[in-house]
Amino acid sequence: MKSPKSDPKGRRKVGTVGGTVRPLLATIKQALVTMPGINRLVPGGRKPVTHLYPYQKVELPLAYRGQHSIDWFKCIGCELCAKVCPNECIYFEFYEVEPTSEYLHPSRAQLDEMKKIIRRPAVDVGHCLFCGNCMEYCPTDAWNFTQEFELADYAREDLYYKADELRMPKENSDKEIVLINRIGEHPILEVDVCIGCRKCERECPTRCIDMLDGPNDRKGKPIVIPEFDYTKCIGCQQCVDVCPVDCLHMEEIGYKDLEGFYHINLQGEVKLLEEQVEK
Amino acid sequence: MPEFWINMGPQHPMTHGLWNMKVKVDGETVTDAKPEIGYLHRGYEKIMEVREFQKNVVLTDRLCYVSSITWSHAYCLAVEKMMGIETPERGQWIRVVSLELQRIASHLMWLAAYGPDLGLLTGLLWALRERELFLDLIQLMSGARMNQNYPRVGGVRNDLPENFEAMCRRSIEHFLKKVDNEYQRVFQESKVFRMRTEGVGRISAADAINWGVTGPNLRACGVDVDLRRLDPYETYEQIDFEPQVWHDGGAGDSYARFICRFNELRESCQIILQALEKMPKSGAYRVKAPRRAEGEGYAKTEDSRGEALFYVIGDGDDRPYRVKIRSPVFCTMAATPLMLRGNKLADSVAILGSVDVCVGEMDK
After folding, report:
1. Residue A228: which H helix or E strand, with range?
2. How close is the nearest chain A Cα to the Cα of B232, in Å?
3. Taking CB atoms and an 8 Å limit, are A184 and B291 in contact across chains?
4. Best residue of B180, B189, B263 to probe chain A, by most A CBs closer than 10 Å
5. Which of B144, B158, B290 is nearest residue A130 as measured by Cβ atoms?
6. What are the extents of the domains in chain B?
7. What is the CATH code of the structural domain delimited by B4-363?
């Protein structure tokens, strides 16, 4: 630790030639160092570290979480993103589509009531905190973030983005279907309580539920009970939520493998701020 | 002239947030002080009881937005201990890198606030300029500049990007040059700065320990306490580093606190460089974490402001039954009347700035 008194140059005396010229030279150098254009030529000169923002934009890494963008081909409307959202700002909207629509997921489309209806997420960006949980736990990799960060708006209502506005452009989608259970749980049935109402079968987004013949209910009438195909289950808890008698609960299975989470390693080549300014 | 109370805050440039320091003055001399906090109380411990373990990581990020990774990491560590899981080695090394990057960013923010406190506006501009380098690195690593949501129960969110190591080395090299040349001259070797900070706000080591002061503030009193060394978590025991302790005379004043933090900037850079070298180049960075858990977990870490503690109890549900947060600034704040007593009123800014107040974590 150096004390100010141990300055090797010694104290500058006022009134001598050196005492007058040296501060003057220092002042001139500082003036040149900060002058635009000349600053690059002077040793120790500083380049600006700021951007002319609206005209120049910073290059952002791929992993940056900006505007949401949802791949409608992949989304199966399981509502898992809404469940893992810390601020609960994801809402689901129902759209009626043609029976030939590409967005209809075959599993749900087989059932009568769901034949023409798809559900897709809408986000209240005013409440969103851009944590990326929705993207991390999405079982089909349908959820993406773009590098678009200018989301400010004039009215609070404008911050509610409808599902249609968040749709990813068709050409960006690879339409590759994956189903990964990233929640690490699957439903378990209590047969004694089940009344065989088939609600879970209708609600399941991957159609992993089959209704089989079960025991008789209290009046002696035979009922059907659900059987789960756990290879297709994504742990979305939709069946648990709709069950009118609470005969289902979620149980730990663990992730099938942690490679299921590797889809969030999105960083590509990117430049740091300093580097972008230098060019 | 009779003694009377002055309100320093809640709206005062010195406070760095919403809190009030009541100061009793006799002329120019402070005879007593009383910190009043609670303007920013958000009920963290209660909110965390109604949210799932994973959603709480987002919440703990906002405990202190200046050093969010260190806080969410402390929470994840406590939950991991409760669940009985351990992060894989690469995950631990990535955590060490992220923690130290965050510590540097936090200390630079403190430096940027402490400069203008003493009328040194250059410090603000320079420190924020260099903080940008580290925020860029953090953004590259986690995808967000602030409130990153990066640590996970059982690891970290994602792997390090490919070009991260080279960028990190280059930024640190650039930063160390700046610290040695510019920062040292404008702060440490400046006579005015030393006159303002030396000998004011003195607190003895015994008092500091009794009042629960931790971290750089306690190390400035000459007590060699660093949880990274005493109770190593993650892979800190494999790293060779020197906790920054003030050994000379005149311990416990504002200048000593400044020096301890300032030297930690360099020390953290060395830790990052070592971690990048010793880190396994590939491997798992995250393990499977159960969604529901039962038991108790307790983790204390060396936050950038002192000793952060999380105590989590789970009752078999997917959310904690009870969470206890120990904030280092909360305890340090209780000791500030001791530092202030006997000093001039104008020096109270130099004293409270050197403590590094973060109201977000103090009020919770």
Report:
1. strand A222-228
2. 27
3. yes
4. B189
5. B144
6. 4-363
7. 1.10.645.10
- Mapped onto helix, strand or coil, the DSSP state of residue A142 is coil
Query: Among B57, B47, B45, which Cα is nearest to B149's?
Result: B57
Query: What is the per-residue pLDDT across B319-334, written as a single tens digit (0 to 9) for each?
Result: 889 899 988 888 888 8
pLDDT averaged over chain B? 87
CA B307 remoteness from chain centre:
9
Q: What is the pLDDT along chain A (279 residues), one digit of tens a residue?
A: 444 444 445 555 666 777 778 878 888 877 777 777 776 676 655 666 677 888 888 778 888 888 888 888 888 888 888 888 888 889 988 888 887 777 777 665 556 666 678 888 899 988 888 888 888 888 888 888 888 888 888 988 888 888 888 888 888 777 777 788 788 788 888 877 788 787 788 778 887 888 887 777 667 777 888 888 888 888 888 888 888 888 888 887 766 556 666 666 666 666 665 555 554
Nearest-CA distance B294 → chain A (Å) = 13
Contacts of A258 in chain B (CB under 8 A): 284, 286-288
**Which pLDDT does position A111 carry in this prediction?**
62
Q: How many angstroms separate the CA atoms of B350 and A236, rounded?
A: 54
Contacts of B163 in chain A (CB under 8 A): 269-270
CA B245/CA B259 separation, integer angstroms: 9
Nearest-neighbour CA in chain B from A270: distance (Å): 8
pLDDT at B311: 92
Query: Does the beta-carbon distance from B158 to A264 stay under 8 Å?
Result: yes
Residue A2 has what pLDDT?
Answer: 40
pLDDT at B104: 92
Average of per-residue pLDDT across B138-159: 86
Distance CA B352, CA B117 (A): 9
Q: Considering only CB atoms, which chain B residues are within 8 Å of A26?
A: none
Q: Do B58 and A264 touch (CB under 8 A)?
A: no
Check residue A256 and give its pLDDT.
54
The Cα B152–Cα B61 span in angstroms is 12
